[in-house]
Amino acid sequence: MIAIIFLLVMLAIALFAASQGAAALPIGEIMMLVGLFLVFFGSGVYIAVVLGALALLSGFVFSDRPFWLFLGQVIWAPSSNFVLVAVPLFLLMGEILLRSGLSEQLYRALNVWMRRWPGGLLHTNIAACAVFSAISGSSVATAATMGSVALPYFEKTAYSQRMVLGSLAAGGALGNLIPPGITFIVYGLMTETSVGKMYIAAIVPSVLVCLLFFAVIFVHGLRLPSKAKPPPATARERWQSLVDLLPTSLLILIVLGTIYGGIATPTEAAALGVVASIVFALVARKLSFKLLNESAEATARNTSMLGLILFGAYMLNFIMTQLRVPQSLAEIVSTLPLPAWAIMLVIIGFYLALGTFMEGFSMIITTIPVVFPVVKSLGYDPIWFGVIVTMLIEIAMISPPDGTVMYVLQGMRRTPGPITDVFSGVMPFVGVYMLALLILLWFPGLALVLVPH
Amino acid sequence: MRRAATAVAAFMNYVAGWNYILCAAFITIDVLCRNFGGFSSSATTEITSYMLAFGIAWGLAHALATRSHIRIDVLVNRLPIGLRQYLHGFALLLLTGLSLFIAWCAWGLVGESILFNAKDTSALAIPLVIPQGLWTIGITMLAVFAVVLLLEVICLLATGNAAEIDRLLGPRGYQEETQEVLEAVGLAPARSADAGDEQL
Description:
- Chain A is mainly alpha-helical and 453 residues long.
- Chain A has helices at residues 2-19, 27-42, 47-62, 71-79, 86-100, 102-114, 121-133, 139-154, 161-172, 182-191, 195-201, 203-223, 235-260, 266-283, 289-322, 325-335, 340-355, 360-377, 382-397, 404-412, 420-442, 445-448.
- The radius of gyration of chain A is 23 Å and the shape is globular.
- Chain A starts with a helix and ends in a 5-residue tail after the last helix.
- Chain B has 200 residues and is mostly helical.
- Chain B is 78% helix and 0% strand.
- Chain B has 7 helices and no strands.
- Chains A and B meet through helix 3, helix 4, helix 5, helix 8 and helix 14 of A and helix 1, helix 2, helix 3, helix 4 and helix 6 of B.
C-alpha cells in the first residue's frame, strides 16, 4: 500500500522534472527499463536474475562494445573480495552463538540489574538484545536468540504481551545497526567505503536508538506500574551476574575491541569471533559435530544466496557504468530545483516503501549502485549515508505487515494470540526509530563526530 | 536424477560451509602469529578470498534446491496455483539461462588465466587457474542443477502436477524461516523453561 502511494508520488515528481525541461533525460528508454523491472519483480523472478537479465538486455541494446567478454572478471571480483569474507564469518559466528546457549546467561545477568526499573523485564529485553547485537551482525538471529530465552520469563506475569513481543522485535532491529553489522559490510563493498569507519560512526546512533527504546518502556512502565516489585538483588546475585556477563564481554572485546583498537580489520575480527564462539560453545558443553555442521550448512546457504544477487548486481553495475547511467542520473538530480534534504527525504521514502516487500540485503545490493552516486553528488557523506541506510533497513524489518523478525517471535510465543499483537506492540518502537532517523538527518554530525579523518 | 543432483549439491554446500570454518581458523592463526609471533603467511588475504569465492560458488546449487534464492513473492503467493506454476516455471527458465551464461563467462575467465598463465601478486604467486577453476565448477553445478530442475518442472507441467511444482520452487515463507530458527535454538527451551520457573 505504502509502496503504491510512493510510486505515484515518484511518478508525479518525474513528470514535474520532465516539464521543468530536464530534456537530456532519455525518458522513453528509462521508462522501458523500469517497466521491465516491475514486470520481472511482479512475476516473482529471482532478484539476481532480474538484475542479470537487465544487464544483458541493456548491454545488447545500448552498448556497441563486446561487454560480455569482461563479465567473467566482473563477477570474479566480488567473489574473491577480502572485505566480503567477513560476511560468511559473521553469519557463522551468529549461527554458532544461536545454538550455544550463551544468551541465557546474558539475559539472567542483565535482569539482576534492571528488573526494578519502571517497565522492569522489558528493559532487560532491549539491553540483552543490544549487548547480543554487539557480537552478532544479524537481526533475525538476535531476535530469535533473545526471544527463546526471554519469553519463558514472561509466562504467568502481568506484563502486556504486546509490549513483550514488541520490545523483543525492536531489540532484534538493533542487530544490524550496532556494530558489527553485515549490512555495513555489503554497503562498504559496493561503495568502497571503509567498514571500520562505519562501525565507529554507528556508535552514537546505536546509543541514541537504545535510549529512545528505554524511554518508550519507561513511559509504558510509569503508566502501568506493576503491583509487586521484585526483591532487590543481593550482593551475591550481583557478583554471580558479573561472572555470567564475562563470556559476552570477552566476545565483545575480541570482536569490537580489535576493530576499534586498530589491531584487526573487520574480516579478521570476524574470524577471531568465530573461533572464540566455538571455544565458548566448548566451555558451555554445547559443542558438537552436529552444531558445527548445521551452522556450516546455514552459513554456506545464506552466503551463496547473497552471492548470486551480488553476481547479478555487479553485472548490471558494470553495464550501467559503461553507459554512464549513474553519473548522468546524479547530474540530472543535482540540477533539479529541489533542496538536497528534499531529495534525501524522497530517497528515504523510497527505501521505506521498498522495505515493505523486499528483504534488506537485496534492497541495498539492488539500489545502492544507482542511489549512491546521487547521494554523493548532493554532498552527503558516504559513511553517514551508510548508517542511514542501515537504520532504514532495520525499520523496514520491523514495520508491519512484513518482517521476518516479527514472524519468528510470533512462532515462539507460548500463549497463543494473533500476529497483530506483535504488530501493535512494535509500533511505538518503530516510531522512535524513525525519530532517531530524523535526528540524524538534522544533525549528521552525531554519526560523524567519532570518525577519525 | 534430481535426487542425485540434490545430494551432490547438498554435499558441495557442506564442503563450502566447513570451508568457512577453516577460513576462520586460518585467519585467526595468521592474526595471532602476526601480533605475537612476528610473522605472517603473507598470502592470507588472497587465500581466504579464494576460499570465499569457492564457498559462494559451491553453495549456489544447494541454495536453489532449498529454495533460498530470493524472489519478490508478494504477488506470486497470492495468485491461484494454476497461474503460479507457470510463473515458477518462467522464473526457473530465466535462472537457468542466466546460470548457463554466468558459467560460460566463468569458463572464459579460466581459459584466459590458462592462456596467460596468470598468477596473483601474493608472495606465493598462486596460479589463478586453481581458485577460478574451483569457483567455475561450483557455478557450473548451479547451471546443471537448474537444467535438471527445469526438465523435471517441464514434465510436471505436462502432467499437470501444479502442487509438486509449488513444492519444488515456491519461495520459502515466513513459516519455514521461523521453523528453521526455532529448530536452531531448539536446544534451549527445556533449560530456559526451568530458569523461568525459578524466577517465578
